Amino acid sequence: MSRPLIGVTVSEIRRKQDAQLVPQGEPAQTEMTLGLSYMRAVERAGGLPVALSPLATMNVDPLLDRLAGLLLTGGPDLDPSCYGAQRHPQLGPTDRDVDMFELELCRKAYLRGMPLLAICRGAQVLNVARHGTLHQHLPDVNHGAVEHRQTEPGDSVTHLVRVAPDSTLAQTTGGGQVQVNSFHHQTIDRLGAGLRPVAWAADGLIEAVEALDERFLIGVQWHAETLVDQAEHLALFEQLVEAARTAERDSGEQEDSDARAI
Q1: Which label site among 46, 147, 226, 258 has the fewest CB atoms less than 10 Å from its CB?
Q2: 107-166 pLDDT tens trace
Q3: Are 191 and 209 contacting, i.e. CB atoms less than 8 angstroms apart?
Q4: How many structural domains are present in the chain?
């Protein structure tokens, strides 16, 4: 089988002054930081992952032309000005350039119907790209009813989510409840256009969204990339890769048909 090219966003930017010098290494410079678990998860699922550096938004279309699918990863908070809100006192560091690139990437991918999986911050980017909003600090909303920022390692699950039985997510994970990890202090508030909620924590907060239509587009708040030893979490990446493979094949068949018609 083909191994479709899956673009993987890099949201963490380490400034030059914060870069760690390594003996005999390169001089300090601004760096991108991405957990290898994202890349390994895509590779394990049968895709070829490629890291996407934040670019000028004018370059989003030619970038997407080369990809078969998209993975929006976790990372820092979005600047609340992206969804018309004021900064909360507990807001973490933000990077406007990264936000603008990822929002445009998400908007253009959505218009193309490109297969897309969004994780943690990625799910929030997806929602804001579709004109939704975010809760900026969960303790203000749920008053600690569920701990959404665990201290245990990423391969440990700490709470349950309830999954809508009629959802693509349920078909992917096997249905019923799913045990997840949790490393976020923000989540979806007002839902974006074309999305529906399909999973909830015990405190009622949204844990996953997906497209209203038949395309493969799922956003989850948990870090599935560190849980891929469990079949239900690996399946998210497998379905992304399979949807990208199908889209790539269909595009190739269309190009062949167009060429024969000339």
Answers
A1: 258
A2: 999 999 999 999 999 999 999 999 999 999 999 999 888 889 999 999 999 999 999 999
A3: yes
A4: 1
- Is residue 43 one of the residues assigned to a domain? yes
Return the amino acid letter for 232. Answer: E
257: DSSP letter: H
Known catalytic membership, residue 135: no
Indicate if 225 belongs to the active site.
yes
pLDDT digits (tens, 9 = 90+) for 233-246: 999 999 999 999 99
Task: Choose the catalytic residue: 148, 184, 223, 233.
Answer: 223
For the chain, what's the residue count? 262
Residue 188 lies in a domain: yes
Residue 117: domain span: 5-13+29-261
Catalytic residue among 82, 120, 232, 233: 120
Catalytic site includes residue 143: no
CB atoms closer than 10 angstroms to residue 42: 29
DSSP H helix total and E strand total for the chain: 7, 13
Residue 106 covered by a domain? yes
Instruction: Name the catalytic one among 225, 232, 238, 242.
Output: 225
Mention every residue, 6+ apart, whose C-beta is less than 8 A from residue 160: 177, 178, 179, 180, 201, 202
Token pair belonging to 68 = 């078969």
In a domain, 24, yes or no: no
CATH number of the domain that residue 161 is part of: 3.40.50.880
